[in-house]
Amino acid sequence: MRSYGDPCGVARGLDVIGERWALLVVRDLLLGPKRFNDLHAGLSGVSPNVLTQRLRDLTEHGVVQRRDLPPPTRVRLYELTDRGRALEPLILYLGRWGSQTATAPDGLLGIDSIMLSIKAGFDPAQAAHLHGVYELHIDADTYFIEVTDDSLHISRDSAPTPPHATLTTDLDTLRAICDHQITLAAALDSGSLHLGGDEHAKQGLTDLLLASFMPAPQPADMP
Predict the structure, then answer these.
(1) Domains and CATH numbers, the chain
(2) Which residues form the signal peptide (predicted)?
């Protein structure tokens, strides 16, 4: 990897994560380990060779580590180290900052980005209203969300206890809701999205989901 040769902490950090695709690899591992093929599928536009090199670089710098599952699985997973997970606040802040740019590319929003947008948009002042354990089934993936008194945790896993509410849908429908192409009510009516649980918990889950994707407020008309 190339180095800026600058002792400043910003430059030294960019020596580790400044190469193209490196920080997006970290982003897609924040919610849990992934296989190489799953990482590659989630990073549209990266070649297998470049992804292999980025994983190697991040491993050498102690940001990512490999873990081989024992037989009969024989699967190699990539996961963040403690050093890698420490990048989460930076990625969430960068996501909030970047989402305010004037235009967005034409590419599709990935499921990890949607989940992290939910986390980035979490308002601790609303925690009491959103408090609960939620389980989201998006295509073949399952995500566990827990809102406590002042924090929100998301992982690519099943809820460790029975969830208060569940959501089941496909990624295309979830994207359409987040992009305001359809309403959640319309998705429920069409059967493309299902909610389970008591009414209070279902309302908390939908509020949590939609809060990060509300349209930006428009400036008031000038007199």
Answers:
(1) 9-99 (1.10.10.10), 111-213 (3.30.1050.10)
(2) none
User: Is the overall model pTM greater than 0.90, yes or no?
Assistant: no
Kindly indicate the confidence band of residue 223, based on its pLDDT and cuts at 50, 70 and 90: very low
The tens digit of pLDDT for each residue in 177-206 reads 988 899 989 999 999 999 999 999 999 998
Cross-strand partners of 137: 142, 168
